[in-house]
Design goal:
- This protein is α/β, with parallel strands linked by helices.
- It has 9 helices and 7 strands; from the N terminus they run H-H-H-E-E-H-E-H-E-H-E-H-E-E-H-H.
- Strands 1-7-6-2-5-3-4 form a 7-stranded mixed β-sheet, with helices on both faces.
- The longest helix has 23 residues.
- The chain is globular and about 50 Å long.
- It starts with a helix and ends with a helix.
């Protein structure tokens, strides 16, 4: 329980003591939005790295060379833990927002930091509003801002399984003309969810697979893109599970 208490306390302090930084970033953004974005990404990444340290998580990152340096991308990953965001954010090489559930927009202070790193809030129950969010995401990637989405739509509560990937999750990459980076996350639930309410030391692997260029796929694969990318992630997931966890 000590790690959980320390992590929660740290997050609260970060949000409260970070208010002056928010004001400074707002001023910077009035004159240089790009500088604000990079500074916000650095601060949020540093904050999450501190949470990782408190949790005692050992992180192994593979496949960074598969992330294109000359284009925004859509990261697409499996989702088992709240720590998926904590661990991936500092690893992304550039400013990267998340497609998050609409309810997170109501969290005070946190919602401001999320907006500063270009997070989008998706209402899956409102088709019209959901379409607006997707169109906003298309605009973001066209402007060079990468996004990360978890196409299962919610945290999967069963280890070593995958919920169906929603096909609509890929519209941002398809309409924005950017590659999809399949992102494999292994063992993140062992940090917290597998033994609530305790946070325990764990090893987590994040693996970035080669980019998927949608316009280069055949018609049938494009039609079933969710299943295709889910298959790539699940196949690599079990390879990594065997390599690092003797599964």
């Amino acid at each position: 329980m000590i790690r959980l208490i320390l992590a929660v306390t740290y997050l609260i302090l970060f949000l409260v003591l970070g208010i002056p930084s928010m004001l400074i970033l707002w001023i910077i953004g009035r004159f240089n939005p790009g500088a604000r974005d990079r500074a916000a990404k650095a601060l949020v990444g540093w904050g999450f790295s501190c949470v990782k340290f408190i949790a005692g998580t050992r992180l192994i990152v593979k496949g960074m060379e598969n992330i294109p340096a000359d284009s925004a991308v859509l990261y697409v990953g499996n989702h088992r833990s709240y720590f998926d965001i904590v661990l991936t954010c500092p690893v992304f090489p550039g400013v990267t927002g998340y497609v998050a559930k609409r309810e997170m927009a109501k969290w005070p202070l946190l919602n401001i930091w999320m907006k500063y790193i270009h997070c989008l809030f998706l209402d899956r129950k409102d088709i019209k509003q959901g379409l607006k969010t997707i169109l906003k995401g298309v605009e973001e990637v066209k402007n060079g801002i990468s996004l990360c989405i978890f196409p299962e739509g919610t945290r999967n509560k069963v280890n070593d399984t995958f919920l169906p990937f929603h096909e609509g999750s890929f519209k941002i990459a398809e309409k924005g003309g950017v590659p999809v980076i399949p992102m494999v996350i292994v063992n993140s639930a062992d940090v917290f969810e597998d033994h609530l309410p305790r946070i325990r030391r764990a090893t987590v692997v994040i693996d970035f697979q080669p980019p998927v260029y949608i316009d280069r796929l055949d018609k049938e694969t494009r039609k079933n893109l969710g299943s295709h990318v889910s298959g790539l992630i699940s196949e690599r997931y079990f390879e990594l599970k065997k390599e690092f966890f003797n599964f």
